[in-house]
Amino acid sequence: MKIARFVKDGKSTLGFVVDEEIIPFDALEGMPKWLEYPLEREENIRRLERKMDLSGIKGYPLKDVRLQSPLLYPGKIVCLGLNFKDHAKEQGKEPSNRLIIFMKPRTALTGPYDTVFVPKFVEKLDYEGELAIVIGRRGKNVPAEGAERYILGYTIMNDVSARDIQFGDRQWTRGKGLDGFAPIGPWIVTKDEIRDHRNLRIRTWLNEELRQDGNTSNMVFDVPKIIEELSRVMTLEPGDIISTGTPAGVGIFAKPEPKLIKDGDVVRIEIENIGFIENRFRFT
Ligand code: MG
Questions:
Q1: Which pLDDT belongs to residue 42?
Q2: How far is the CA of 131 from the centre of ligand 1 (A)?
Q3: Is residue 238 classed as helix, strand or coil in its secondary structure?
Q4: Ligand 1 centre and the CA of 86: distance in Å?
Q5: Percentage of the chain with pLDDT > 90?
Q6: Would you say residue 49 has pLDDT above 90?
């Protein structure tokens, strides 16, 4: 299933994406009606695991709705640093044998096709195309073997980064935590529809130029290992987002000179089996 959040007639709700339509949860028997935090609640995710018959139910054309972040109030957004061997290499670093993590505030979340407004004090704006895990079950000390039980599905995130702030601060919270610096979506694809999370192509375009062409097979910590390591230190909860790091090809390390995001530029990130997100950036 593909689960998306959308706005229609001024109302925000969740729905299933089927072909070119979106079927609101409200249209289905036994599904939660409009709740404030649907996917962030365990009982709502359990409902999604029941077999659902969507045949014959009329939805809205996708083109007539505005998609939002599928999650509005995740308990945490954890991001991984240096988790792709090729990305470590492009900056002259060894892949880390430690899980390097940082967090983004939820105010960084924005919709898959929204414009991102960037304050003018940001000097070096960069993109990072990433596969994000959405947690579906509460867990602590989860072993890698069986870790997939704790996953609801996968989505795409752009780990937008102000490199001048990130490198100046020597830690990442401020430079990667600005409002709108986590475009996400376009939907959550449930894990049963992901063929192989260890072999997904990730591509990022800056305007027309293909800048990242990586694969999750290049990860240092793969998805089950990430869950094992992370759940040793923090309880994972339904709706939590874990962004798994970016492959080579970010703007700041481009040769012979950086290729950063300028006012009006568009960044498109596509991940096999999921779809794409595409955001324009405006400096204000
Ligand atoms: Mg990143």
A1: 87
A2: 10
A3: coil
A4: 13
A5: 83
A6: no
Q: Where are the alpha helices (DSSP H) in 134-247?
A: 163-169, 173-176, 223-233
Is pLDDT at 37 greater than 70 in this prediction? no
For residue 246, the CA-to-ligand 1 centroid distance in Å is 5
67-117 pLDDT, tens digit per residue, is 999 999 999 999 999 999 999 999 998 888 899 999 999 999 999 999 999
d(CA 47, CA 216): 30
Q: In this structure, which residues have their CB less than 5 angstroms from ion ligand 1?
A: 128, 159, 246
pLDDT at residue 263 tops 80? yes
Please tell me which residue, 181 or 33, carries the higher pLDDT value.
Answer: 181
Question: What CA–CA distances, in Å, run from 165 to 129, 171, 178, 259?
Answer: 19, 9, 11, 17
What separation in Å is there between the alpha carbon of 81 and the centre of ligand 1? 6
Of 186, 166, 244, which Cα lies nearest the Cα of 62? 186
So what's the pLDDT on residue 55? 85
Alpha-carbon span 236 to 242, nearest angstrom:
10
Ligand 1 geometric centre to CA of 179 (Å): 16
CA of 127 to the centre of ligand 1 (A): 8
β strands within 168-274, DSSP E: 182-190, 201-206, 209-215, 241-243, 266-271
Measure the CA angle with vertex 171, ends 166 and 176; round to 5°: 50
* CA 130 to ligand 1 centroid distance, Å: 7
Distance from Cα 186 to the centre of ligand 1, integer Å: 18
Distance 145 CA to ligand 1 centre (A): 25
AA identity, residue 32: P
